[in-house]
Design goal:
Elements (H helix, E strand, L loop, with lengths): L1 E5 L3 H14 L4 E6 L2 H11 L3 E5 L7 H10 L5 E6 L4 H9 L4 E4 L4 H19 L9 H9 L7 H11 L7 E7 L4 H17 L5 E7 L4 E7 L4 H12 L8 E7 L5 H8 L15 E2 L15 H12 L3 H14 L8 H21 L3 H4 L3 H10 L3 H21 L5 H13 L6 H8 L3 H12 L3 H19 L4 H7 L5 H12 L3 H8 L1
Parallel strand pairs: 1-2, 1-3, 3-4, 4-5, 9-10
Antiparallel strand pairs: 6-8, 6-9, 7-8
Helix pairs in contact: 2-3, 11-12, 11-13, 11-17, 12-16, 13-15, 13-16, 18-19
Amino acid sequence: MRVLIVEDEIRISEGIEKLLHKTDSGYEVVGIASDGLEGLELCRQLHPDLIITDVQMPEMDGLRMLEAVYAEGINAKAIVISAYSEFEYARGAMKLGVTEYLLKPINLSEFTNALEHIKHQIMEDNRRKPDKVGTLEQIMREIVGGRLQADDDTKNYLFKKYHVSSEQQFILIVSYLGDQYAAGAGSGKSSLSHSLSLYEGISYCSLEIEYLKSVVSIVYNCPDPSDFERWVQYQLLNSFTDDPAIGYTVVDSLTHIRSGLDRLFPYMDWNLSFEDSVLISYPKITQIQTSMCVYPQDLEAKIKSAICASDHKKERELLGQFLDHFRDGKVYDPHEIKESFVRFIWAVIETAKGIGNKGAGGISQQKLLERIMNARIREELSDICDMIADTLEQSADAADSDNLTIRRAKSMITEFYHTGITLDEIASRLDITPEYLGTLFHKETGVTFSTYIKNFRIQKAKELLIGTSLKLYEIADRVGYSDPKYFSKVFRDTTGQLPADYRKAFK
Protein backbone atom coordinates (compact mmCIF):
# COMPACT_ATOMS: atom_id res chain seq x y z
CA MET A 1 0.00 0.00 0.00
CA ARG A 2 1.37 3.41 -1.02
CA VAL A 3 1.27 5.85 1.90
CA LEU A 4 1.69 9.62 2.08
CA ILE A 5 2.42 11.17 5.51
CA VAL A 6 1.43 14.83 6.03
CA GLU A 7 2.75 16.13 9.37
CA ASP A 8 4.56 19.33 10.31
CA GLU A 9 6.49 17.79 13.23
CA ILE A 10 9.43 15.76 11.94
CA ARG A 11 9.59 13.64 15.09
CA ILE A 12 5.97 12.54 14.68
CA SER A 13 6.23 11.86 10.93
CA GLU A 14 9.33 9.74 11.53
CA GLY A 15 7.48 7.92 14.31
CA ILE A 16 4.54 7.17 11.99
CA GLU A 17 6.92 5.81 9.36
CA LYS A 18 8.53 3.51 11.93
CA LEU A 19 5.11 2.31 13.11
CA LEU A 20 4.14 1.49 9.53
CA HIS A 21 7.23 -0.66 9.02
CA LYS A 22 6.73 -2.29 12.40
CA THR A 23 3.11 -3.10 11.55
CA ASP A 24 3.56 -4.58 8.06
CA SER A 25 6.34 -4.61 5.48
CA GLY A 26 3.72 -4.13 2.76
CA TYR A 27 3.44 -0.37 3.44
CA GLU A 28 5.51 1.89 1.18
CA VAL A 29 5.93 5.50 2.30
CA VAL A 30 6.00 7.30 -1.06
CA GLY A 31 6.25 10.80 0.37
CA ILE A 32 6.32 12.98 3.48
CA ALA A 33 4.90 16.52 3.47
CA SER A 34 5.26 19.17 6.16
CA ASP A 35 1.96 21.00 5.51
CA GLY A 36 -1.31 20.70 3.62
CA LEU A 37 -0.21 22.59 0.52
CA GLU A 38 2.80 20.34 0.04
CA GLY A 39 0.62 17.33 0.82
CA LEU A 40 -1.92 18.31 -1.85
CA GLU A 41 0.80 18.68 -4.47
CA LEU A 42 2.27 15.27 -3.56
CA CYS A 43 -1.19 13.71 -3.82
CA ARG A 44 -1.49 15.06 -7.34
CA GLN A 45 1.88 13.62 -8.27
CA LEU A 46 1.89 10.31 -6.40
CA HIS A 47 -1.78 9.26 -6.12
CA PRO A 48 -1.26 7.40 -2.82
CA ASP A 49 -3.62 4.69 -1.55
CA LEU A 50 -3.58 6.12 1.98
CA ILE A 51 -3.02 9.61 3.41
CA ILE A 52 -2.07 9.90 7.09
CA THR A 53 -2.44 13.54 8.07
CA ASP A 54 -2.32 15.76 11.12
CA VAL A 55 -5.05 18.38 11.45
CA GLN A 56 -3.38 21.60 12.55
CA MET A 57 -0.51 22.59 10.25
CA PRO A 58 0.79 25.83 8.75
CA GLU A 59 -0.28 27.07 5.31
CA MET A 60 -3.15 24.57 4.94
CA ASP A 61 -4.60 22.26 7.60
CA GLY A 62 -5.22 18.56 7.06
CA LEU A 63 -8.98 18.75 6.54
CA ARG A 64 -8.77 21.55 3.96
CA MET A 65 -6.16 19.48 2.16
CA LEU A 66 -8.44 16.40 2.13
CA GLU A 67 -11.34 18.53 0.85
CA ALA A 68 -9.16 19.65 -2.05
CA VAL A 69 -7.91 16.09 -2.67
CA TYR A 70 -11.42 14.66 -2.89
CA ALA A 71 -12.67 17.61 -4.95
CA GLU A 72 -10.03 16.78 -7.56
CA GLY A 73 -11.22 13.16 -7.71
CA ILE A 74 -8.13 11.65 -6.09
CA ASN A 75 -9.41 8.41 -4.61
CA ALA A 76 -7.36 7.85 -1.42
CA LYS A 77 -8.30 6.65 2.04
CA ALA A 78 -7.32 8.81 5.01
CA ILE A 79 -6.35 8.52 8.66
CA VAL A 80 -6.69 11.83 10.52
CA ILE A 81 -4.63 12.49 13.65
CA SER A 82 -5.25 15.24 16.20
CA ALA A 83 -5.62 16.02 19.89
CA TYR A 84 -8.79 15.48 21.95
CA SER A 85 -9.21 19.23 22.36
CA GLU A 86 -9.71 19.53 18.58
CA PHE A 87 -13.24 18.08 18.74
CA GLU A 88 -14.49 20.35 15.96
CA TYR A 89 -11.83 18.93 13.64
CA ALA A 90 -13.03 15.40 14.35
CA ARG A 91 -16.50 16.53 13.35
CA GLY A 92 -15.11 17.97 10.10
CA ALA A 93 -13.29 14.72 9.33
CA MET A 94 -16.52 12.76 9.79
CA LYS A 95 -18.31 15.05 7.31
CA LEU A 96 -15.60 14.34 4.75
CA GLY A 97 -16.27 10.62 5.10
CA VAL A 98 -13.04 9.86 6.96
CA THR A 99 -13.61 6.67 8.96
CA GLU A 100 -10.32 6.52 10.88
CA TYR A 101 -9.59 9.26 13.45
CA LEU A 102 -6.73 8.81 15.94
CA LEU A 103 -5.76 10.88 18.95
CA LYS A 104 -2.27 11.86 20.02
CA PRO A 105 -0.18 10.21 21.32
CA ILE A 106 -0.62 7.44 18.78
CA ASN A 107 -1.14 3.98 20.28
CA LEU A 108 0.37 1.08 18.27
CA SER A 109 -2.62 -1.19 18.77
CA GLU A 110 -5.14 1.46 17.72
CA PHE A 111 -2.93 2.52 14.80
CA THR A 112 -2.77 -1.13 13.65
CA ASN A 113 -6.56 -1.46 13.90
CA ALA A 114 -7.04 1.68 11.82
CA LEU A 115 -4.72 0.32 9.13
CA GLU A 116 -6.60 -2.98 9.10
CA HIS A 117 -9.88 -1.10 8.63
CA ILE A 118 -8.36 0.81 5.71
CA LYS A 119 -7.08 -2.43 4.17
CA HIS A 120 -10.53 -3.94 4.43
CA GLN A 121 -12.12 -0.90 2.79
CA ILE A 122 -9.65 -1.00 -0.11
CA MET A 123 -10.22 -4.74 -0.59
CA GLU A 124 -13.96 -4.13 -0.61
CA ASP A 125 -13.47 -1.31 -3.12
CA ASN A 126 -11.51 -3.58 -5.42
CA ARG A 127 -13.94 -6.49 -5.14
CA ARG A 128 -15.83 -7.34 -8.32
CA LYS A 129 -15.64 -4.01 -10.11
CA PRO A 130 -18.10 -4.20 -13.01
CA ASP A 131 -16.71 -2.85 -16.27
CA LYS A 132 -20.01 -1.55 -17.65
CA VAL A 133 -21.51 -5.01 -17.01
CA GLY A 134 -23.03 -6.80 -14.07
CA THR A 135 -26.23 -6.76 -12.06
CA LEU A 136 -28.01 -3.53 -11.21
CA GLU A 137 -26.99 -3.98 -7.58
CA GLN A 138 -23.31 -4.38 -8.54
CA ILE A 139 -23.33 -1.28 -10.69
CA MET A 140 -25.14 0.84 -8.10
CA ARG A 141 -22.74 -0.38 -5.41
CA GLU A 142 -19.77 0.73 -7.51
CA ILE A 143 -21.36 4.12 -8.20
CA VAL A 144 -22.14 4.65 -4.50
CA GLY A 145 -18.58 3.65 -3.60
CA GLY A 146 -17.11 6.08 -6.14
CA ARG A 147 -15.40 3.25 -8.02
CA LEU A 148 -17.45 3.60 -11.20
CA GLN A 149 -18.20 6.83 -13.02
CA ALA A 150 -21.68 7.30 -14.46
CA ASP A 151 -20.31 7.95 -17.96
CA ASP A 152 -22.24 7.56 -21.22
CA ASP A 153 -21.42 3.85 -21.57
CA THR A 154 -22.69 3.10 -18.05
CA LYS A 155 -25.83 5.18 -18.58
CA ASN A 156 -26.60 3.44 -21.91
CA TYR A 157 -26.01 0.02 -20.39
CA LEU A 158 -28.35 0.73 -17.45
CA PHE A 159 -31.07 2.00 -19.76
CA LYS A 160 -30.87 -0.92 -22.22
CA LYS A 161 -30.43 -3.64 -19.61
CA TYR A 162 -32.58 -2.36 -16.70
CA HIS A 163 -34.64 0.51 -18.18
CA VAL A 164 -33.04 2.95 -15.75
CA SER A 165 -32.95 6.47 -17.15
CA SER A 166 -29.93 8.34 -15.79
CA GLU A 167 -31.54 11.78 -16.13
CA GLN A 168 -34.31 11.38 -13.58
CA GLN A 169 -34.70 11.87 -9.87
CA PHE A 170 -33.20 9.20 -7.62
CA ILE A 171 -34.33 8.97 -4.01
CA LEU A 172 -31.79 7.73 -1.46
CA ILE A 173 -33.05 6.10 1.75
CA VAL A 174 -30.40 5.31 4.37
CA SER A 175 -31.21 2.94 7.23
CA TYR A 176 -28.42 3.26 9.80
CA LEU A 177 -27.92 0.10 11.90
CA GLY A 178 -24.85 1.09 13.92
CA ASP A 179 -23.32 -1.67 16.03
CA GLN A 180 -26.09 -4.04 14.90
CA TYR A 181 -24.93 -3.87 11.28
CA ALA A 182 -22.93 -7.12 11.26
CA ALA A 183 -25.80 -9.12 12.71
CA GLY A 184 -28.71 -7.29 11.13
CA ALA A 185 -27.67 -6.02 7.68
CA GLY A 186 -29.13 -8.98 5.80
CA SER A 187 -32.46 -8.98 7.59
CA GLY A 188 -32.56 -5.18 7.53
CA LYS A 189 -32.12 -5.17 3.77
CA SER A 190 -34.87 -7.76 3.33
CA SER A 191 -37.22 -5.87 5.64
CA LEU A 192 -36.61 -2.54 3.90
CA SER A 193 -37.04 -4.08 0.44
CA HIS A 194 -40.28 -5.75 1.49
CA SER A 195 -41.65 -2.47 2.85
CA LEU A 196 -40.73 -0.59 -0.34
CA SER A 197 -42.50 -3.24 -2.43
CA LEU A 198 -45.78 -2.14 -0.82
CA TYR A 199 -45.61 1.28 -2.49
CA GLU A 200 -46.93 0.89 -6.02
CA GLY A 201 -45.22 2.31 -9.06
CA ILE A 202 -41.63 2.63 -7.87
CA SER A 203 -38.48 0.71 -8.69
CA TYR A 204 -35.64 0.31 -6.20
CA CYS A 205 -32.33 -1.36 -5.44
CA SER A 206 -31.12 -1.99 -1.86
CA LEU A 207 -27.43 -2.25 -0.90
CA GLU A 208 -25.56 -3.25 2.25
CA ILE A 209 -22.86 -0.58 2.79
CA GLU A 210 -20.50 -1.77 5.51
CA TYR A 211 -18.38 1.36 5.96
CA LEU A 212 -21.57 3.33 6.67
CA LYS A 213 -23.06 0.53 8.82
CA SER A 214 -26.19 1.09 6.78
CA VAL A 215 -28.58 -0.34 4.23
CA VAL A 216 -29.02 2.12 1.37
CA SER A 217 -32.03 1.92 -0.94
CA ILE A 218 -31.95 3.74 -4.28
CA VAL A 219 -35.49 4.45 -5.49
CA TYR A 220 -36.23 5.51 -9.07
CA ASN A 221 -39.19 5.81 -11.47
CA CYS A 222 -41.13 7.39 -8.61
CA PRO A 223 -44.34 9.02 -9.95
CA ASP A 224 -44.85 11.40 -6.99
CA PRO A 225 -41.74 12.08 -4.86
CA SER A 226 -43.64 14.34 -2.41
CA ASP A 227 -46.25 11.68 -1.69
CA PHE A 228 -43.53 9.05 -1.42
CA GLU A 229 -41.64 11.10 1.19
CA ARG A 230 -44.83 11.39 3.27
CA TRP A 231 -45.30 7.63 2.98
CA VAL A 232 -41.71 7.00 4.16
CA GLN A 233 -42.21 9.31 7.17
CA TYR A 234 -45.63 8.14 8.33
CA GLN A 235 -45.78 4.50 7.23
CA LEU A 236 -42.35 3.08 6.44
CA LEU A 237 -40.60 4.67 9.43
CA ASN A 238 -43.38 3.74 11.86
CA SER A 239 -43.39 0.13 10.67
CA PHE A 240 -40.06 -0.55 12.41
CA THR A 241 -40.30 -2.15 15.86
CA ASP A 242 -37.05 -0.52 17.04
CA ASP A 243 -36.02 3.16 16.79
CA PRO A 244 -33.91 3.38 13.62
CA ALA A 245 -32.18 6.33 12.03
CA ILE A 246 -33.64 6.77 8.55
CA GLY A 247 -32.21 9.36 6.16
CA TYR A 248 -33.81 10.66 2.96
CA THR A 249 -32.62 12.81 0.09
CA VAL A 250 -33.34 13.33 -3.60
CA VAL A 251 -30.76 13.80 -6.37
CA ASP A 252 -31.50 14.88 -9.91
CA SER A 253 -29.43 12.34 -11.84
CA LEU A 254 -27.43 9.12 -11.65
CA THR A 255 -24.23 11.17 -11.61
CA HIS A 256 -25.14 12.77 -8.27
CA ILE A 257 -25.99 9.62 -6.28
CA ARG A 258 -22.58 9.45 -4.59
CA SER A 259 -22.45 13.16 -3.75
CA GLY A 260 -26.04 13.07 -2.50
CA LEU A 261 -25.21 10.26 -0.09
CA ASP A 262 -22.10 12.14 1.07
CA ARG A 263 -24.24 15.20 1.84
CA LEU A 264 -26.94 13.26 3.68
CA PHE A 265 -24.95 10.88 5.87
CA PRO A 266 -23.25 13.44 8.16
CA TYR A 267 -26.73 14.56 9.24
CA MET A 268 -27.81 11.07 10.33
CA ASP A 269 -26.79 11.82 13.93
CA TRP A 270 -29.75 14.25 14.13
CA ASN A 271 -31.68 11.14 15.11
CA LEU A 272 -30.19 11.76 18.57
CA SER A 273 -32.03 15.08 18.74
CA PHE A 274 -35.59 13.78 18.49
CA GLU A 275 -37.66 11.84 21.03
CA ASP A 276 -39.56 9.82 18.42
CA SER A 277 -38.58 8.40 15.06
CA VAL A 278 -38.21 11.30 12.64
CA LEU A 279 -37.16 11.12 9.01
CA ILE A 280 -33.79 12.85 8.52
CA SER A 281 -34.65 14.55 5.25
CA TYR A 282 -31.91 16.56 3.55
CA PRO A 283 -31.87 19.52 2.96
CA LYS A 284 -34.90 20.10 5.24
CA ILE A 285 -32.87 19.04 8.28
CA THR A 286 -30.54 22.02 7.76
CA GLN A 287 -33.42 24.37 8.56
CA ILE A 288 -34.19 22.87 11.99
CA GLN A 289 -34.30 25.39 14.84
CA THR A 290 -32.58 24.18 18.00
CA SER A 291 -32.67 25.09 21.67
CA MET A 292 -29.64 25.93 23.78
CA CYS A 293 -28.11 22.75 25.18
CA VAL A 294 -27.49 23.29 28.91
CA TYR A 295 -25.00 20.91 30.52
CA PRO A 296 -26.47 19.20 33.64
CA GLN A 297 -23.97 20.25 36.31
CA ASP A 298 -26.26 18.90 39.03
CA LEU A 299 -26.21 15.39 37.55
CA GLU A 300 -22.42 15.49 37.29
CA ALA A 301 -22.15 16.44 40.98
CA LYS A 302 -24.59 13.68 41.97
CA ILE A 303 -22.84 10.95 40.01
CA LYS A 304 -19.46 11.98 41.42
CA SER A 305 -20.92 11.57 44.91
CA ALA A 306 -22.41 8.19 43.96
CA ILE A 307 -19.05 7.00 42.63
CA CYS A 308 -17.26 8.12 45.77
CA ALA A 309 -19.86 6.27 47.86
CA SER A 310 -19.60 3.16 45.61
CA ASP A 311 -23.38 3.34 45.14
CA HIS A 312 -23.61 1.37 41.89
CA LYS A 313 -27.40 1.41 41.73
CA LYS A 314 -27.33 5.20 41.94
CA GLU A 315 -24.58 5.38 39.30
CA ARG A 316 -26.78 3.50 36.80
CA GLU A 317 -29.79 5.58 37.69
CA LEU A 318 -27.90 8.84 37.13
CA LEU A 319 -26.40 7.66 33.83
CA GLY A 320 -29.97 6.93 32.70
CA GLN A 321 -31.10 10.37 33.85
CA PHE A 322 -28.26 11.93 31.88
CA LEU A 323 -29.41 10.14 28.70
CA ASP A 324 -32.98 11.34 29.31
CA HIS A 325 -31.78 14.90 29.98
CA PHE A 326 -31.78 15.57 26.22
CA ARG A 327 -35.27 14.12 25.65
CA ASP A 328 -37.37 16.84 27.22
CA GLY A 329 -39.42 17.84 24.19
CA LYS A 330 -36.83 20.31 22.89
CA VAL A 331 -34.55 19.84 19.88
CA TYR A 332 -30.82 20.11 20.53
CA ASP A 333 -27.93 20.09 18.07
CA PRO A 334 -26.57 16.50 18.08
CA HIS A 335 -23.01 17.77 18.16
CA GLU A 336 -23.75 19.63 21.40
CA ILE A 337 -25.34 16.47 22.81
CA LYS A 338 -22.17 14.52 22.00
CA GLU A 339 -19.93 17.20 23.50
CA SER A 340 -22.00 17.12 26.71
CA PHE A 341 -21.80 13.34 26.65
CA VAL A 342 -17.99 13.41 26.36
CA ARG A 343 -17.75 15.90 29.22
CA PHE A 344 -20.04 13.84 31.48
CA ILE A 345 -18.39 10.47 30.79
CA TRP A 346 -14.94 12.02 31.24
CA ALA A 347 -16.03 13.35 34.65
CA VAL A 348 -17.23 9.86 35.60
CA ILE A 349 -13.98 8.20 34.52
CA GLU A 350 -11.72 10.77 36.18
CA THR A 351 -13.68 10.57 39.45
CA ALA A 352 -13.47 6.78 39.43
CA LYS A 353 -9.75 6.94 38.70
CA GLY A 354 -9.34 9.33 41.60
CA ILE A 355 -10.62 6.75 44.10
CA GLY A 356 -8.44 4.01 42.62
CA ASN A 357 -10.99 2.24 40.41
CA LYS A 358 -8.74 0.05 38.27
CA GLY A 359 -11.43 -0.59 35.67
CA ALA A 360 -11.82 3.12 34.97
CA GLY A 361 -8.06 3.40 34.53
CA GLY A 362 -8.18 0.64 31.92
CA ILE A 363 -10.79 2.32 29.72
CA SER A 364 -9.37 3.56 26.40
CA GLN A 365 -10.64 7.14 26.31
CA GLN A 366 -9.55 7.47 22.69
CA LYS A 367 -11.74 4.56 21.58
CA LEU A 368 -14.54 5.87 23.77
CA LEU A 369 -14.28 9.29 22.13
CA GLU A 370 -14.49 7.67 18.69
CA ARG A 371 -17.60 5.70 19.70
CA ILE A 372 -19.31 8.83 20.98
CA MET A 373 -18.38 10.95 17.95
CA ASN A 374 -19.59 8.26 15.55
CA ALA A 375 -22.89 7.60 17.37
CA ARG A 376 -26.03 8.24 15.35
CA ILE A 377 -28.69 6.45 17.37
CA ARG A 378 -29.57 6.63 21.06
CA GLU A 379 -28.83 2.92 21.59
CA GLU A 380 -25.15 3.53 20.83
CA LEU A 381 -24.90 6.10 23.62
CA SER A 382 -26.97 3.88 25.93
CA ASP A 383 -24.56 0.99 25.32
CA ILE A 384 -21.65 3.22 26.33
CA CYS A 385 -23.42 4.12 29.59
CA ASP A 386 -24.05 0.43 30.30
CA MET A 387 -20.40 -0.36 29.64
CA ILE A 388 -19.25 2.39 32.01
CA ALA A 389 -21.65 1.24 34.75
CA ASP A 390 -20.57 -2.40 34.34
CA THR A 391 -16.90 -1.42 34.52
CA LEU A 392 -17.34 0.60 37.70
CA GLU A 393 -19.33 -2.15 39.39
CA GLN A 394 -17.10 -5.06 38.37
CA SER A 395 -13.94 -3.21 39.35
CA ALA A 396 -15.40 -2.38 42.75
CA ASP A 397 -16.36 -6.03 43.28
CA ALA A 398 -12.83 -7.10 42.39
CA ALA A 399 -11.43 -4.68 44.95
CA ASP A 400 -13.23 -6.23 47.93
CA SER A 401 -9.88 -7.37 49.32
CA ASP A 402 -8.83 -3.72 49.76
CA ASN A 403 -9.43 -2.17 53.14
CA LEU A 404 -12.98 -0.79 53.07
CA THR A 405 -12.16 1.99 55.51
CA ILE A 406 -9.31 3.29 53.34
CA ARG A 407 -11.44 3.12 50.21
CA ARG A 408 -14.09 5.19 51.94
CA ALA A 409 -11.45 7.66 53.10
CA LYS A 410 -10.11 8.01 49.55
CA SER A 411 -13.65 8.56 48.29
CA MET A 412 -14.11 11.41 50.76
CA ILE A 413 -10.82 12.96 49.71
CA THR A 414 -11.91 12.83 46.05
CA GLU A 415 -15.27 14.37 46.85
CA PHE A 416 -14.23 17.01 49.40
CA TYR A 417 -10.52 17.80 48.76
CA HIS A 418 -11.44 21.29 47.56
CA THR A 419 -13.02 22.15 50.92
CA GLY A 420 -9.77 21.64 52.84
CA ILE A 421 -11.08 18.49 54.55
CA THR A 422 -8.77 17.14 57.28
CA LEU A 423 -7.84 13.78 58.74
CA ASP A 424 -9.90 14.58 61.86
CA GLU A 425 -13.01 15.35 59.80
CA ILE A 426 -12.74 12.15 57.77
CA ALA A 427 -12.11 10.08 60.90
CA SER A 428 -15.17 11.62 62.51
CA ARG A 429 -17.34 10.73 59.53
CA LEU A 430 -15.99 7.18 59.59
CA ASP A 431 -16.58 6.99 63.36
CA ILE A 432 -12.97 6.08 64.17
CA THR A 433 -10.11 7.94 65.87
CA PRO A 434 -7.74 10.10 63.79
CA GLU A 435 -4.77 8.15 65.19
CA TYR A 436 -6.20 4.84 64.01
CA LEU A 437 -7.09 6.24 60.56
CA GLY A 438 -3.62 7.75 60.15
CA THR A 439 -1.89 4.48 61.06
CA LEU A 440 -4.20 2.41 58.83
CA PHE A 441 -3.83 4.85 55.92
CA HIS A 442 -0.02 4.65 56.03
CA LYS A 443 -0.12 0.87 56.28
CA GLU A 444 -2.47 0.44 53.31
CA THR A 445 -1.11 3.14 50.96
CA GLY A 446 2.55 3.41 51.93
CA VAL A 447 2.29 7.18 52.48
CA THR A 448 0.93 9.36 55.25
CA PHE A 449 -2.52 10.89 55.00
CA SER A 450 -1.09 14.42 54.75
CA THR A 451 1.23 13.39 51.90
CA TYR A 452 -1.56 11.64 50.01
CA ILE A 453 -4.03 14.55 50.18
CA LYS A 454 -1.27 17.09 49.41
CA ASN A 455 -0.26 15.15 46.28
CA PHE A 456 -3.91 14.76 45.29
CA ARG A 457 -4.50 18.52 45.53
CA ILE A 458 -1.31 19.37 43.65
CA GLN A 459 -2.30 16.98 40.85
CA LYS A 460 -5.67 18.72 40.56
CA ALA A 461 -3.86 22.07 40.57
CA LYS A 462 -1.66 20.90 37.68
CA GLU A 463 -4.74 20.01 35.67
CA LEU A 464 -6.26 23.45 36.29
CA LEU A 465 -3.01 25.26 35.48
CA ILE A 466 -2.73 23.53 32.11
CA GLY A 467 -6.37 23.14 31.21
CA THR A 468 -7.85 26.50 32.30
CA SER A 469 -7.05 30.21 32.40
CA LEU A 470 -8.00 30.58 36.06
CA LYS A 471 -5.89 32.93 38.15
CA LEU A 472 -3.56 31.39 40.74
CA TYR A 473 -5.67 32.46 43.73
CA GLU A 474 -8.73 30.88 42.08
CA ILE A 475 -6.87 27.60 41.54
CA ALA A 476 -5.61 27.65 45.12
CA ASP A 477 -9.16 28.06 46.39
CA ARG A 478 -10.48 25.29 44.12
CA VAL A 479 -8.00 22.73 45.42
CA GLY A 480 -8.49 23.53 49.10
CA TYR A 481 -5.88 26.21 49.92
CA SER A 482 -7.25 29.45 51.36
CA ASP A 483 -3.84 31.16 51.24
CA PRO A 484 -2.44 31.52 47.67
CA LYS A 485 1.09 32.13 48.97
CA TYR A 486 1.04 28.96 51.01
CA PHE A 487 -0.36 27.10 47.99
CA SER A 488 2.56 28.37 45.87
CA LYS A 489 5.06 27.23 48.50
CA VAL A 490 3.53 23.74 48.73
CA PHE A 491 3.41 23.52 44.93
CA ARG A 492 7.10 24.50 44.64
CA ASP A 493 8.15 22.09 47.40
CA THR A 494 6.29 19.26 45.63
CA THR A 495 7.15 19.94 41.97
CA GLY A 496 10.28 22.09 42.11
CA GLN A 497 8.50 24.91 40.26
CA LEU A 498 6.21 27.77 41.13
CA PRO A 499 2.68 27.43 39.71
CA ALA A 500 3.21 30.23 37.19
CA ASP A 501 6.45 28.64 35.91
CA TYR A 502 4.73 25.25 35.65
CA ARG A 503 1.94 26.79 33.56
CA LYS A 504 4.45 28.46 31.21
CA ALA A 505 6.40 25.24 30.79
CA PHE A 506 3.47 23.00 29.95
CA LYS A 507 0.77 25.17 28.42
